[in-house]
Amino acid sequence: MAATVDARGLSCPQPVILTLNEINSGRDPQINILVDTETSKENVSRAAVSKGCSIIEVVPESGGYRILIQKAE
Amino acid sequence: MQKRNFFATRGGIITVGAIIGVLAPVLQKLGNPGNMGICVACFERDIAGAIGFHRAQVVQYIRPEIIGFVLGSLIAAYLFREFRPRVGSTPIIRFFLGVFAMIGALIFLGCPWRALLRLAGGDLNAVLGLAGLAFGIWIGTLFLRKGYNLGRSQPANPVAGWILPLMMVGFLMLMLIFPQIPGEAKSGILFYSISGPGSMHAPLLVSLIAGLAIGFLAQRSRFCTMGALRDLILFRHFHLFSGFVTLLVVAFITNVILKQFHLGFEGQPVAHTLHAWNFAGMALSGLCFSLAGGCPGRQLFLSGEGDGDAAVFVLGMIVGAGFSHNFNLASSPKGLGTYGIAAIVVGTLFSLLVGFMMTRKAAGSN
């Protein structure tokens, strides 16, 4: 099961804030983050990695990206 | 397939900070005002003057750097398929955040870019400005932590994303149609300062090319002076900050080489020494930039990428410059404008109102 964070259309730094919130308090080991710009994709990926998560895949979707991350441990 | 974007890496943003740190002092050497090789706020204010939005005669000139920032970003966005026209994230609020960001900046006499360049030139008053900037951004992060946001933007027709770049092309055309005539305060419909900072500028082509280069590189690297401090405060992330610090250090070295470094508080170019108001002006600006999601440079680069909400913020800054000079809100080297303090109070109340009202308790909801 993967949680979903929909960060499409949100200004910086909301995509990172939402992602970090889900990493910190969500229960699912995997999280799908939806973003609509390259900048958000980079920021979210960088933030996830900084929390020890691994990026499983980054898939172009609906004009943006779906980033699937696996939480640490 | 995604091409790797070197400029979006740590090494890339440091490179961009270094390039800006060289170009800005060089622009100053070639004619831009003291410790003002680049200042997004001052330059948008000069544009406001050139098109008649205010009549402060010493600050009227269409700054090609600003034009270049937007168009350079547009070129980079199209080349690398990152142009994404989008609008709809409460633009009316963004407009007034731009108005008050400009008002705050003109009380300090600089945007965050200029605060760095002033410090790199030895102007210690910029320490107060940068401290104020950090304070204002910190207040913004308190709202951000609680879920503040201005709502989602929606994909839009490309023409919506072309408007601000087209406006900048229009300004460039006006400069070519009504070029500066030495000694004349007006050329056709454009105002041109014949004294003061507005009269101090590098050659048009040099400014434009430097602006295009910076616009291109800043779009690729997502350079943002506000984000640099915000991410440090909010997340302890250093990525944007590494570019910010590099700009400062390289600009300092370049200034020393170009003999543009003079350490002290007194007698600094286009600056005053009212510590409390340098702090407060930048604090207001910092809060507005953080509530709007980007420093004034970033808003120009986003505009070039097709972000219509950032474009509205830019327009707010230009109009804010008109208010600042028409209502005597702006500072000068002699000190505060007549109603500068009142403007800070109004701007702070506005920003706090926006911050509180647009904060949602549930951070995951839209």
Summarize the structure.
The complex is a heterodimer of chains A (73) and B (366). With 73 residues, chain A is of the alpha+beta class. Chain A has two helices and four strands.
Architecture overview:
With 73 residues, chain A is α+β, with helices and mostly antiparallel strands. Helices cover 34% and strands 36% of the residues of chain A. Chain A has a four-stranded mixed sheet with strand order 1-2-4-3, covered by helices on one side. In chain A, helix 1 links the parallel strand 1 (2-6) and strand 2 (30-35). In chain A, helix 1 packs parallel to helix 2 (38-50). The two termini of chain A are 16 Å apart. With 366 residues, chain B is mostly helical. Helix content of chain B is 62%, strand content 2%. In chain B, the strands form two sheets. Chain B has a two-stranded antiparallel sheet. Chain B has a two-stranded antiparallel sheet with strand order 3-4. In chain B, helix 11 (275-292) runs parallel beside helix 14 (340-357). The model of chain B is unreliable at 362-366 (pLDDT under 50). Classes of the chains: A alpha+beta (73), B mainly alpha (366).
